[in-house]
Amino acid sequence: MDRPRFELTASPHIKGPDSTPRIMWSVVGSLVPVVVAASWYFGVSALLVITVATLGAVGTERVLGPGGTLRDGSAAITGLLLGLTLPAGIPLWMALLGGIIAIGLGKMVFGGLGQNVFNPALIGRAFLQAAFPEGLTTWPPAPERWFQLAGDNFALPFMSPDLEPFVTGATPLGQMKFEGIGTAPLDLFLGATGGSLGETAAVAILLGGAYLALKKYLDWRIPVSIFATVALLSQTVHWISPEYPGAVFMLFSGGLMLGAVYMATDMVTSPTTPKGAWLYGLGIGALVVLIRLWGGLPEGVMYAILLMNAMVPFINRATQPRVFGTGRGVAAP
Amino acid sequence: MTDLFWILISAMLVNNFTLVLFLGLCPFMGVSGRVSTALRMGGANIFVLTITSVVASFLNAFVLPYAPYLRLISFIVVIASLVQIVETVIKKVSPALFRELGIFLPLITTNCAILGLAIFQTNRGYGFLEGLFFAVGAGLGLTLALVLMASIREQTELADVPAMARGMGLVLILAGSLSLAFMGFAGLFSS
Q1: In a domain, A2, yes or no
Q2: Do residues A132 and A228 both lie within one domain?
Q3: CB contact under 8 A, A126 and B182
Q4: In this model, does residue B45 exceed pLDDT 50?
Q5: How far lies A259's CA from each of A202, A209, A278, A299, B119, in Å?
Q6: Quick check: A99 and A52 in contact, CB under 8 A?
Q7: How far is A136 from chain B (nearest CA, A)?
Q8: Which of A304, B40, B110, B167 has the most other CB atoms within 10 Å of its CB?
Q9: Do A28 and A165 sit in the same domain of this protein?
């Protein structure tokens, strides 16, 4: 039989240069300043933790996934983001386990990229938080020299880490919540505070986020609506009773920046409609304020995003746009 | 008044019966395939939990002071038979409502969430009104968990789930993930 003279293909016929690997590797690239800032503040421990978490994620994807899915870079993003949510002094085996859980139970069990319901990095983080609350909430202050470890990184699995030689500090949110001490806004903005690796340098995260938003690799509506909700709610509460922190502190402390810019905007686990994106951001912002101000934990960004991830199928269904030519103003056939 | 409101919120989110206390898992796993059925199951749960709370306050006030050893058995027997009677009455009086809720009512009367509610209410010394708010909060929490689970499951029907996790395996993993997310509500409004 002759080959057809015309190639018949399904739409789309006009294709842009953007592909999944290109987008994913751009996100990895935009995370480089955040990683550099983390290692600037926390020394060699930061690089170790991030590398091991990424190895755990990438290795699991290699073992469980069909061949070739490593090249799209999504496992590397999961690992990097997971590493950035961990404290510098965490034992490395916990970081590795987190990476394995994140990809294994957060993503591959659903069938891989594009099919998971929850953000994989946050599933890994939430798992670690539930399993090892002590390891995940020991915040070392920045070490004096770069090559100095920030904590007992090389503790063996299931041995209690030797924390004697290390001082533990407090995060700005913890200080605010349990002792009522504030932190200077400039320190929060530049990142010279205690906390998880990527939680501290707001300026680096905003730069990376702005780049991705300009390239349209993330939906700007989500971070904007999260920031607006958090700022409005917390400022209102601050006016009513000033013992609660104001908007600036709430915006630039803890994991809000990293969560809002890099985790809430995960293309797979965020709503597909513009109206849905606004609602989703609104929900995350409101939950963050609720958990931070009145919850038992100092930080709630991770839980807020996971809870709203669970709402996404519902939001998508509720905010379907009207199909052209149906609905309002059209007589029933 | 505010106390009643906190009881409701606490039963709904902080101590969600399904996702935090792991009670009532059978309807949560079994009837969460579709959002429409999940909503009806939730409605039936709110209904039975409310009846349970009323019955438990009644028993606590009038019967159990004289025979404390009858607590468990009287809770189960009285609640189950009352729900059975209510089901028969609904079937006669409002067939539409029966089609919406009726099938689920006998299924959940012997559920651990129901007995759990009665026992929690007794142990915490809730009065009639407090118990009522507690029951409605617990029911709303169960409904929330069911509907969330059902909407997620409808979406993952299209996912290319590996053979080892297909079906109940994935549901259990989803339940675990939801439960991890609900840990964020721990200690809400307790300080």
Answers
A1: no
A2: no
A3: no
A4: yes
A5: 11, 11, 16, 11, 40
A6: yes
A7: 15
A8: A304
A9: yes
What's the whole-number mean pLDDT along residues A305-327? Answer: 86
* Average pLDDT, integer, range A287-308: 89
Distance CA A82, CA A302 (A): 11
- Domain endpoint, select from A104, A137, A169: A169
Chain A residues touching residue B180 (CB < 8 angstroms): 123, 126-127, 130, 306
Please state the domain extents for chain B: 9-183
Beta carbons of A264 and A223 less than 8 angstroms apart: yes
Clarify whether residues A76 and A139 are in a common domain.
yes
- B 26-85 residues with CB < 8 A to A: none
Contact A317 B151 (CB under 8 A): yes
> pLDDT at residue A332 above 50?
no
Residue A150 belongs to domain spanning: 21-169
**What is the spatial distance between Cα A295 and Cα A287, in angstroms, rounded to a whole number?**
10
Upper half-sphere CA count for residue A233 (Cβ side, 13 Å)? 20
Instruction: Verify that A158 and A27 share a domain, yes or no.
Output: yes
Whether residue A254 is contained in a domain is answered as: yes
Of the listed ranges A298-302, B74-78, B103-107, B165-169, the one predicted with least confidence = B103-107
Q: Give the residue carrying structure tokens 């085996």.
A: A93
Within a domain: residue A124?
yes
Q: How many residues does chain B have?
A: 191
Q: Taking chain B, what is the end-to-end CA distance rounded to the nearest angstrom?
A: 18
Q: How far is B189 from chain A (nearest CA, A)?
A: 5
Number of H helices, E strands in chain A: 14, 0
Q: Are A110 and A62 found together in one domain?
A: yes
Cβ atoms A140, A151 nearer than 8 A: yes
DSSP calls for A268-309 = TTS-SSHHHHHHHHHHHHHHHHHHHHHSSSS--HHHHHHHHH
Neighboring chain B residues of A313 at a CB cutoff of 8 Å: 151-152, 154-155
What is the tens place of the pLDDT at every residue in A263-273? Answer: 999 888 999 89
pLDDT of residue A326: 72
Beta-carbon separation of B147 and A310 below 8 A: no
* Structural domain count of chain A: 2
My answer on whether A53 and A158 are in the same domain is: yes
User: Tens of pLDDT along A80-137?
Assistant: 999 999 988 888 899 999 999 999 999 988 888 888 899 999 999 999 999 988 778 7
pLDDT at A329: 56
CB atoms within 10 A of CB B63: 14
Window 146-185 of B, Cβ < 8 Å to A: 147-148, 151-152, 154-156, 158-162, 165, 169-170, 173-174, 176-178, 180-185
The pTM assigned to this predicted structure is: 0.88
SS3 state at A164: coil
